[in-house]
Structure formats: structure tokens, C-alpha cells
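user: can you give me the structure for this one chain? C-alpha cells are fine.
assistant: on it. calling the predictor now.
[tool input]
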Amino acid sequence: MNKDLENLLNSLEPEVDKKCFELKQKQKERKLQKLFIITSIMLLVLPSILIIANINIWSFIIGAIAVTSTIVIIMLPIALKQEVRGECYE
């Protein structure tokens, strides 16, 4: 009986790994959706706050472009390297 159980577990292991990968992907997608929503809200709210606080929008835009450029330069290699089901595509 113990050997049958081991055979069953060994045969189901690829399916368990596949399901685990799918769950991790869904969790990653949910995090990205939340990040997108927060970024969209900030994109709408931040200019309004700058106008109310009487801050020059151009000084903010120059800073935002500098920060965004730095982040893109740092994160681009990470974004381009994708691992799908254990296989790395570069």
C-alpha cells in the first residue's frame, strides 16, 4: 500500500507543480493590477495637489522624468528576463 501511495504521489507531482505555478502567476497578476490602480490614482490626484499647493508643475515633471528614467534603466534588464515554467527566455 505504501508503494502505491508513492507511485500516486510521483505521478501527481507534475500536476501539483503546474497548479502551484499557476497560483503564483495569478498572485503576481493581482499585485500588478493593484500597482496599476494605485499608479493611475496617483497620476490623477498628484497634479491636483500640486496645483492646490501652488507648486510649479514643470519642476515636478522634470523630477518625475528623472526618477522614471532611472527606474526604467534599473528595471529593464529584470523585465526583459522572463522565466516561464522553469525555462528562461532572454
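assistant: here you go. The chain is about 85% helix and 5% strand. Residues 23 and 35 are 19 Å apart (CA to CA).
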